[in-house]
Write a structure and sequence with these properties.
The protein has 16 helices and 6 strands. It is mostly helical. Helix 4 packs across helix 11 and helix 5 (134-165) runs antiparallel to helix 6 (170-180).
Length: 462
């Protein structure tokens, strides 16, 4: 819906001076000139190490993640079925007349990949500058994604098994686990982007325009084949074309391409993309709902990604100014420091809280009524508290170092490729078949094997 939840493998940092000022009740130190975009900052703690941070990216990541949580909070409603009185689910926003155009604003997944591409290509360039190879970089990135995902897969599999053993209706279990597992598609898309990044970054370095044009042509060809044949599965090919192409926009941003454009050019580029998007929708071949154009991904996501990249650059001065305030930096640090955990677990928490809220006899106003909208506020507050509590133990898997034991070498490249494929397969199948107890079990096993392969090094050569 990793901004990239785990774009650069590190929490957004908070300057030590800001932490001390916040603690002492003083105004933090004024940032140096030009520090609104990138600053050298320190995360709080005795072992803090200076790191170059792009504070605009941190702000955008945090904002995107909060938008995703908000959208899912509005989408999940457990209410009484008018006929049976039992629990039923309703997606209230989809029933509103403004829904489809709201998705043009709230569909932030392309921006996730733009932000991820920016951070990832800089990480790759630092890695190669120090003599690192592709297998080592992909291993570290995949491990940061798959280790927290392995925990979720295991919990989903165990939960399904326990519910079925307790006599819960299989269809109910399947419905609940499908809702909880919807964010898992991101693992397949982002893992593919990370695994392909050494290749696509090389293409970009040699011929950025030709690389983007070639990927765009492939995306359009897949869309045309899907529409022409009516075979929905053909569109799944765009998973490894659309998102790497949108990631290329992040490469351009890291190169300063968007920064060198004048505001009028950025406005014109964003406006043109929205106009083309409207034209595609008007043909009737693409849904006006941008959430429907997500899986399988279509050229609509590319146009939305370009528009969002332009708008992000226009908003960069304002975001930089915002990140010079103490509350904004602390919020970015608090959310960004557990971004992958929040992304993976927010929907299971929302579903669980909504179910408990209903079963405990909480207020159940008519979905879509003024009272329903008003009760989203306390319900959201409960979700935030529960998510903050459960993230404390869960975030350990996200923050655990990826370094190998002393003296060990990186796993061989074929081992890394096998691990990536094992981690990619379950969320990819979830896109087409939806999540089921069987797939949850398969995901738990395959992801655990992938993590084990990535954690195992080779003895150093004598």
């Amino acid at each position: 819906m990793t901004t990239d939840p785990g774009a650069d493998g590190a929490a957004p940092a908070v300057p030590a001076g800001v932490v001390r000022a916040f603690r002492d009740g003083r105004r933090g130190p004024a940032p140096p000139p030009g520090a609104g975009v990138a600053e050298t900052v320190r995360a709080p703690g005795p072992a803090a190490v200076p790191a170059q941070r792009d504070l605009v990216l941190d702000a955008a990541r945090t904002g995107c993640l909060l938008v995703v949580v908000l959208v899912h909070l509005l989408m999940v409603t457990v209410t009484a079925d008018p006929g049976t009185g039992g629990p039923a689910t309703v997606m209230v926003p989809t029933q509103q007349p403004w829904y489809w155009w709201a998705t043009w604003i709230l569909q932030v997944m392309p921006l996730f990949f733009v932000l991820g591409g920016h951070a990832s290509v800089l990480s790759w360039r630092r890695h190669t500058a120090h003599g690192g190879d592709a297998a080592g970089w992909v291993r570290a990135r995949a491990l940061r994604l798959l280790r927290p995902a392995a925990v979720l897969w295991a919990v989903l599999a165990l939960g399904c098994g326990a519910a079925l053993a307790a006599g819960a209706p299989p269809e109910l279990v399947r419905t609940v686990v499908q809702g909880m597992g919807m964010p898992l598609w991101f693992l397949a898309a982002y893992l593919a982007c990370q695994a392909l990044l050494p290749l696509t970054a090389g293409w970009h370095g040699r011929a950025p325009g030709a690389t983007a044009a070639g990927l765009l042509a492939a995306v359009v060809a897949v869309d045309a084949l899907r529409i022409g044949t009516g075979a929905a599965w053909v569109g799944l090919l765009n998973l490894v074309l659309v998102w790497p192409l949108v990631q290329q926009l992040g490469f351009l941003r890291a190169d300063g391409w968007f920064e060198r454009r004048r505001p009028a050019q950025l406005l014109a580029g964003g406006g043109l993309c929205f106009a083309l998007l409207a034209g595609l929708v008007a043909t009737g071949r693409y849904a006006p709902d941008m959430l429907a154009n997500l899986n399988p991904a279509t050229v609509c996501m590319v146009l939305l990604g370009v528009a969002q990249a332009c708008l992000l650059q226009l908003a960069a001065p304002a975001l930089g100014a915002l990140m010079r305030t103490r509350p904004a930096r602390l919020a970015a640090w608090a959310v960004g420091g557990r971004a992958m955990t929040v992304y993976l677990w927010h929907l299971p928490v929302i579903v669980a809280v909504a179910a408990v809220w209903f079963l405990a006899g909480g207020p159940d106003p008519q979905p879509g009524s003024a009272a329903w909208w008003a009760w989203r506020v306390p319900l959201g507050a409960v979700v935030a508290v529960v998510l903050a509590v459960v993230s404390v133990p869960l975030v350990r898997a996200e923050r655990r170092p990826v370094a190998l034991p002393p003296g060990d070498r990186e796993p061989a490249a074929p081992v890394v490729v096998l691990a990536v494929l094992l981690g990619f397969l379950p969320p990819f199948l979830q896109i087409s078949w939806w999540l089921s107890p069987v797939l949850a079990l398969a995901g738990a096993v395959l992801t655990a094997v992938a993590v084990a392969l990535l954690r195992r090094g080779r003895p150093a050569a004598r």
